[in-house]
Amino acid sequence: MDFAFDARTEELRTRLLAFMDEHVYPAEKTAQEQRALLASPWDTPRIVEDLKAEARSQGLWNLFLPDAGHGAGLSNLQYAPLAEITGRSPQLAPTALNCAAPDTGNMEVLFQFGTDEQKKRWLEPLLAGEIRSAFAMTEPEVASSDATNIETRIVRDGGDYVVNGRKWYISGAMNPDCEIFIVMGKTATADGPDAPDIRRRQSMILVPRDTPGLEVRRAMQVYGYEDHYHGGHAEVVLTDVRVPAENLIGEEGGGFAIAQARLGPGRIHHCMRLIGMAERAIELMCRRAVSRTAFGKPLAQQGVVQNWIADARVTVEQLRLLVLKTAWLMDTVGNRGAHTEIQAIKIATPRAVVGILDQAVQLHGAGGVGQDFPLAELWAAARTLRLADGPDEVHQRSLARREIKRYV
Ligand SMILES: Cc1cc2nc3c(=O)[nH]c(=O)nc-3n(C[C@H](O)[C@H](O)[C@H](O)COP(=O)(O)OP(=O)(O)OC[C@H]3O[C@@H](n4cnc5c(N)ncnc54)[C@H](O)[C@@H]3O)c2cc1C
């Protein structure tokens, strides 16, 4: 039985479920066919733009943004069940609704910390779904789960900043529509010392894609996939990239704090979508189990298969409640007050959903690892979320330290 949400959420859920049935699921095959004919694999299939137009006309647009003026004005608790539904088709549905990462996090940063000029130039076209964006923090040379390691330099030179560094796994950057990068680096004068507080050395700056010196060098793979729908995950090199000082977001040294603010909602959105992925896996498992016979009876009658399905259902129900509790806490006591729960869902959800997807792959036999079912690609996407936005171990360390501190 479904959880009962407030009237507005229920109404949006009903409309979104219909949108998925009528438009998104049928578009999955069409998108694959159109992608095969594109001049570049990084271009966007026509059907994705059609889905965006349809979703927008139906008011299913920018649901992630709590501000009623710019977004749908939903709380985290209201958005959670909607994001879950989009997770059932993660390649198309979040983009169709203009609710896809990393644009959502970037729009939140611009909305919260951007100047009026930055909002006009970059937030407005992002909210309109006219352009895409990327967030560039991780670097191949240093352990980037520790943001204080970041080596990219952002050096003030007169009225400009000059940026030098190398980034990788920058999601979305291969898409030619990705026009703006939020780059995280260390600010310091050319010969000046770093700030004494290691958490006050990082800053974020806006770098337009067409700035001389910015090179999108190559697409990194994810278990062999290139994630075309997400605009890939690029290696990006910045060599003497010069942008006006007005492109800085917030103040010098404020990058660490902005990153923290950005990642709270981003993490819960990923977890909400992961639950939708798990629901899709359970559905596919059940459909396969009743339609395939081995050794004289349907797979659905094998005890081991029943155990997989039952355990998956129990896990999903537990995860959903924890995610909803976290969303409710974020709404009522803020992201800081929900810190432990945000970390808990970030640790628990990808791990559990990877396990469910793995069993769904197993149940599908050889088909499970191939392209005729979405399971292999969903598995790869879920598995990366044990790394992206901070590896499990970093969240475990921080959560455990807070827990232990209560007793010393
Ligand atoms: C598909 C995908 C998309 C991504 N998109 C983006 C993006 O858009 N922008 C961006 O900037 N980055 C992105 N990333 C990068 C991601 O955020 C980083 O991979 C992550 O933060 C870890 O940094 P790292 O890879 O340098 O690993 P490292 O920091 O080198 O860590 C490696 C491992 O060391 C262990 N470890 C680290 N710290 C601790 C600790 N304190 N205790 C115990 N063990 C520890 C963990 O097991 C960890 O996995 C993406 C990654 C993937 C896979």
TrEMBL record:
<dbReference type="InterPro" id="IPR013786">
    <property type="entry name" value="AcylCoA_DH/ox_N"/>
</dbReference>
<comment type="subunit">
    <text>Homodimer.</text>
</comment>
<dbReference type="InterPro" id="IPR036250">
    <property type="entry name" value="AcylCo_DH-like_C"/>
</dbReference>
<dbReference type="InterPro" id="IPR037069">
    <property type="entry name" value="AcylCoA_DH/ox_N_sf"/>
</dbReference>
<keyword id="KW-0285">Flavoprotein</keyword>
<dbReference type="InterPro" id="IPR009100">
    <property type="entry name" value="AcylCoA_DH/oxidase_NM_dom_sf"/>
</dbReference>
<keyword id="KW-0274">FAD</keyword>
<dbReference type="InterPro" id="IPR009075">
    <property type="entry name" value="AcylCo_DH/oxidase_C"/>
</dbReference>
<dbReference type="InterPro" id="IPR046373">
    <property type="entry name" value="Acyl-CoA_Oxase/DH_mid-dom_sf"/>
</dbReference>
<dbReference type="Pfam" id="PF02770">
    <property type="entry name" value="Acyl-CoA_dh_M"/>
</dbReference>
<keyword id="KW-0560">Oxidoreductase</keyword>
<dbReference type="Pfam" id="PF00441">
    <property type="entry name" value="Acyl-CoA_dh_1"/>
</dbReference>
<protein>
    <submittedName>
        <fullName>Acyl-CoA dehydrogenase</fullName>
    </submittedName>
</protein>
<dbReference type="InterPro" id="IPR006091">
    <property type="entry name" value="Acyl-CoA_Oxase/DH_mid-dom"/>
</dbReference>
<dbReference type="InterPro" id="IPR050741">
    <property type="entry name" value="Acyl-CoA_dehydrogenase"/>
</dbReference>
<feature type="domain" description="Acyl-CoA oxidase/dehydrogenase middle">
    <location>
        <begin position="134"/>
        <end position="240"/>
    </location>
</feature>
<comment type="similarity">
    <text>Belongs to the acyl-CoA dehydrogenase family.</text>
</comment>
<dbReference type="Pfam" id="PF02771">
    <property type="entry name" value="Acyl-CoA_dh_N"/>
</dbReference>
<feature type="domain" description="Acyl-CoA dehydrogenase/oxidase C-terminal">
    <location>
        <begin position="253"/>
        <end position="402"/>
    </location>
</feature>
<feature type="domain" description="Acyl-CoA dehydrogenase/oxidase N-terminal">
    <location>
        <begin position="10"/>
        <end position="130"/>
    </location>
</feature>
